[in-house]
Design goal:
By secondary structure, this protein is α/β, with parallel strands linked by helices. The protein has three domains: 4-47, lambda repressor-like DNA-binding domains (434 Repressor (Amino-terminal Domain), Orthogonal Bundle), CATH 1.10.260.40; 58-157 and 294-323, Response regulator (Rossmann fold, 3-Layer(aba) Sandwich), CATH 3.40.50; 160-292, Rossmann fold (3-Layer(aba) Sandwich), CATH 3.40.50. Helices cover 44% and strands 16% of the residues. It contains twelve helices and twelve strands. The protein has helices at 4-11, 15-23, 30-43, 49-56, 72-85, 101-113, 129-136, 160-173, 189-204, 221-234, 248-260, 294-310, and strands at 61-66, 91-96, 118-121, 141-144, 154-158, 179-183, 214-216, 242-245, 270-274, 288-291, 320-323, 326-328. A six-stranded parallel sheet has the order 2-1-3-4-5-11, sandwiched between helices. β1 (61-66), α5 and β2 form a beta-alpha-beta unit. The model has no long low-confidence stretch (mean pLDDT 91).
C-alpha cells in the first residue's frame, strides 16, 4: 500500500504539500496540485476516508438527484460532475426520482441525514418552499436543468425558450405551418419555457396554434408514444406536417408512433427534437435537434460546488449560469417550399 511519503517523492513535493492537497485546507499552486493528484493516481494511494471525514467534518459525498438517471442527458450531466469533483476526492451518489415530487423530497431528506456535502438537483417540484426548508437545515443544493424562483441556490440551466424558438423558426422556414408539439410536464420550468418558445415562433409568423396537434409526453418515451399514436388516429385525415418533441425520449416515442401508423419520416411527417436521441448515428433519418451540452452543464455544476466547498463560499444571492446549445440541422425535415 502506497504511503504519503511515496506520493510526495513521486510528485517532487513535501509531505505537507501532499497533505494540503488531499485535505483541501490550505491553498497550493495548480502545478503542485496536478503533480500530487497524478502521483496519487499512479500509486493508487488511498487515504483513511473515515478518519479524514471526521477530522474535516466532511463526507466527501455529492448527491445527484435527477428525474431519470437512465436518460443519456442526465448521464452526461453526471459524467461532467464526476470529472470535476473526483479530482478533489469527492464521490457521487445517484438518485432517480421518476418525476415524483414526494420521492424527490424523500431522497433529499435521506441525503441530508447522510450529511452529503452537496446535492446537484434536477427538480420536479412546483414550489421552492419545501426545498428552502432543507436548505435552511443546512443542505447545500445546486439546481441544474430547471429553475425555481425565490430559491437561494445557484442554477445551471439552458436558454430553453430561445432555443425552442430557434428550432421551430427553422421548421417554419422550411414551409411548415401545421406543427404539433409533444410537451413535458407543464408544471416544470423547462417544459413551460420550451412551450413558450414554440408558441412565440408561431405567433411571430402569424401561424395559429392548433390544440388538436398538442400532446402531453410526460418526458417519457412510452407516454409520448401512446399520446402521439392517439393524436395521429384522431387527425388521420388532417395530419400535422411536423412534430416537435421537447426532449429526446419523447422524440423516440413520437418516432415509434409515426412508423407504427405506416407513415414515413420526413416524407409524411417531419420531426424535430429538443435534445438528441440515443445513438443518433444509427437512426435514419438523422434527427434535426437542439444539441444539448449536458456534459458542460455537469462540469459547470461541479466547478461551482467545488468553489463553494473548498473556498467555503456561502450563498448570498443566487447565480444563474446559462449553458449554450446548438441547432444541428440534419435530414428529418422535409422542405415544403
Amino acid at each position: 500500500m502506497a504511503t504519503i511519503k511515496q506520493v510526495a517523492a513521486l510528485a517532487n513535493v513535501s509531505t505537507a504539500t501532499v497533505s494540503r492537497v488531499l485535505n483541501g485546507n490550505y491553498p497550493v499552486s495548480k502545478e503542485a496540485f496536478d503533480h500530487v493528484m497524478d502521483a496519487v493516481e499512479q500509486l493508487g494511494y488511498r487515504t483513511n476516508q473515515i478518519a479524514k471525514s471526521l477530522k474535516m467534518n466532511k463526507t466527501f459525498m455529492i448527491g445527484l438527484v435527477v428525474p431519470d438517471i437512465s436518460n443519456p442527458y442526465f448521464m452526461e450531466i453526471a459524467r461532467g460532475i464526476e470529472q470535476v469533483v473526483s479530482r478533489y476526492g469527492y464521490s457521487l451518489i445517484f438518485c432517480s426520482t421518476d418525476e415524483e415530487p414526494e420521492k424527490e423530497l424523500r431522497l433529499l431528506r435521506l441525503l441530508n441525514e447522510k450529511r452529503v456535502d452537496f446535492v446537484v438537483l434536477a427538480s420536479s417540484l412546483k414550489e421552492a418552499d419545501l426545498l428552502q426548508q432543507l436548505i435552511d437545515q443546512g443542505l447545500n443544493i445546486i439546481v441544474v436543468d430547471t429553475y425555481l424562483p425565490n430559491l437561494k441556490v445557484d442554477f445551471v440551466v439552458e436558454d430553453n425558450e430561445n432555443l425552442s424558438y430557434k428550432i421551430v423558426d427553422y421548421a417554419i422556414s422550411q414551409g411548415h405551418t401545421k406543427i404539433g408539439i409533444v410537451n413535458g410536464i407543464m408544471d416544470i420550468s423547462t417544459a413551460k419555457e420550451r412551450n413558450s418558445g414554440y408558441l412565440k415562433a408561431l405567433e411571430d409568423h402569424q401561424i395559429s396554434f392548433e390544440e388538436r396537434y398538442s400532446v402531453n409526453g410526460g418526458y417519457y418515451r412510452d407516454i409520448a408514444y401512446q399520446n402521439v399514436k392517439q393524436m395521429i388516429q384522431r387527425n388521420r385525415h388532417d395530419l400535422p406536417t411536423m412534430i416537435y418533441a421537447t426532449n429526446n425520449q419523447m422524440t423516440e416515442g413520437a418516432m415509434i408512433a409515426i412508423r407504427e401508423a405506416g407513415l414515413r419520416i420526413p416524407e409524411d411527417i417531419s420531426i424535430i427534437s429538443y435534445g438528441d436521441i440515443t445513438l443518433p448515428q444509427l437512426v435514419e433519418p438523422r434527427i434535426t435537434a437542439i444539441q444539448q451540452n449536458s456534459r458542460v452543464m455537469g462540469e459547470k455544476a461541479g466547478e461551482i460546488l467545488i468553489n463553494r466547498l473548498e473556498n467555503k463560499r456561502s450563498i448570498i444571492e443566487s447565480d444563474i449560469y446559462v449553458i449554450s446549445s446548438d441547432l444541428i440541422v440534419r435530414n428529418s425535415v422535409r422542405r415544403l417550399t
